[in-house]
Design brief:
Elements: H1 2-6, H2 18-39, H3 44-52, H4 56-79, H5 89-108, H6 112-117, H7 122-138, H8 150-177, H9 185-194, H10 197-207, E1 211-214, E2 217-222, E3 225-228, H11 239-253, H12 255-260, H13 265-271, H14 280-285, H15 289-301, H16 319-327, H17 331-341, H18 347-360, H19 363-369, E4 385-386, E5 394-395, H20 398-415
Antiparallel strand pairs: 1-2, 2-3, 4-5
Length: about 425
């Protein structure tokens, strides 16, 4: 509760400051707590606290601020002579902050109360998710060859983080579409007509950026890594495929959406592309898609009536516009301030921050989050014991530990 209460929005000029880094620690601890609670089916407490203390709009505001910083201030920062990239540090800590927030939102947005507690900020979140889905749709799935040059390697890591953030945004958007019945009319209009999300989702089904062919093997992105998919599993639906199809079901089949969406010639031709993907194998895995198949068959042979034009006062997202207007023309001044006060840390400040992060990411916590059980360093079987001195290596038996000791001893001494 103390961590939730302490959450607050940041000014752009404060990103990277000590106060902002503390906020990052709070978000990261809540994020890890949310994942552990969700895996145990006990995330209601976190959800209730975020709703009670009205922190969802705060988290969405922080997400928008970080995104603006990346696009407006970081490029200016890199052009300044005083900025010495000790310092791919800024972009990675900011990207990690964005990833932590979107991950936390993904964990809790499953609940209707969370979606409702976002209130008007839901429009900013929809816009944010739309920008991320557009990035996904434009992403080339061609595998890049590993490059040993450090800047390019770092750039690849940054791109991978952006890719993972975009995938989280896809999940958040799907949870928002689950609540179309309780969303404000402006949110539906924004998703269906302003951004035409159904057509973007069709693009994702068609080009599937989390799947690629490399050296004759199919690889899919799941749980944070690319996996080679054996031939017998290539027709299996991944979680990400499921998120896209569920979002399409929500946006196309609910009466509220059918009433508002423009089924014009272009949209109709795009949606009918889905028929080629609705195979019996896919429908067996997600039986609800039978309804989608029927709907598309009906759409193919009928001229849909134009949507009824209601006279409504449409809300517009305010968080992003407010931040942009407030800081317009100040990008260089903010960058110079951050070089001086945030991104030129002394050795002592770096050590202090490293200590704080080491406490945040304790070994016990990281092990609890890991999807796989530890394996014996010697024989590779599942391990239950580990070196009591450095707590870094795992073994199945005392015999394996003794056998490995001479190799492990130098690292153990260093760690201890």
């Amino acid at each position: 509760e103390a961590l939730v209460r302490a959450l607050q929005g940041s000014e752009l000029r404060d990103i990277g400051s000590q106060g902002w880094l503390r906020q990052h620690e709070y978000v990261e601890k809540l994020n890890m707590h949310g994942i552990l609670s969700a895996s145990a089916g006990q995330e209601q407490l976190l959800t209730e606290l975020l709703v009670t203390h009205a922190k969802i709009p705060v988290l969405i505001g922080e997400l928008i601020s970080v995104e603006i910083w990346k696009h407006k201030i970081f490029p200016v920062l890199c052009r300044l002579e005083d900025f010495k990239p000790r310092s791919t540090f800024p972009i990675y800590v900011v990207l990690h902050h964005e990833a932590s927030i979107i991950n936390l939102l993904e964990t809790v947005f499953f609940y209707k109360e969370i979606c409702e507690s976002a209130e008007d900020s839901i429009l900013d979140l929809i816009d944010y998710c739309h920008r991320k889905l557009t990035l996904l749709a434009a992403r080339s799935t061609k595998a890049q060859a590993a490059d040993p040059v450090p800047p390019q390697e770092l750039q690849k890591q940054a791109e991978m983080m952006e890719f993972e953030i975009s995938l989280k945004a896809l999940s958040v958007l799907r949870f928002i579409t689950d609540q179309v019945g309780s969303l404000p009319l402006s949110a539906l209009t924004r998703m269906l007509n302003t951004h035409n999300l159904p057509c973007i989702l069709v693009e994702l089904v068609e080009h599937c950026p989390w799947s690629c062919w490399e050296a004759g093997q199919l690889k899919k992105f799941e749980n944070g890594t690319w996996h080679v998919v054996p031939p017998e599993d290539q027709v299996k639906m991944t979680k990400l495929d499921g998120q896209v199809w569920l979002a399409l079901l929500n946006l196309l089949l609910s009466p509220e959406c059918q009433h508002k969406y423009r089924f014009d010639g272009f949209n109709k031709s795009q949606l009918l592309k889905l028929r080629a993907f609705l195979t019996d194998v896919l429908i067996d895995q997600l039986p609800n898609l039978v309804e989608m198949q029927r709907f598309l068959s009906y759409l193919a042979v009928t001229d849909s009536a134009p949507p009824k034009k209601d006279l409504i006062l449409e809300q517009v997202p305010v968080i992003r516009d407010h931040v942009l207007k407030k800081n317009s023309g100040k990008w260089e001044a903010i960058a110079k301030h951050q070089v001086k006060h945030a991104f030129s840390p002394t050795e002592e400040e770096l050590k202090l921050q490293a200590r704080r992060w080491a406490q945040t990411y304790s070994l016990d916590m990281m092990e609890a989050l890991a999807p796989d059980k530890p394996r014996c360093r010697v024989c590779g079987v599942e391990a239950a014991k580990r070196c009591s001195r450095c707590r870094n290596e795992w073994y199945c038996t005392r015999a394996c530990q003794v056998q490995h000791w001479q190799k492990h001893k130098p690292a153990c001494n260093l760690m201890a």
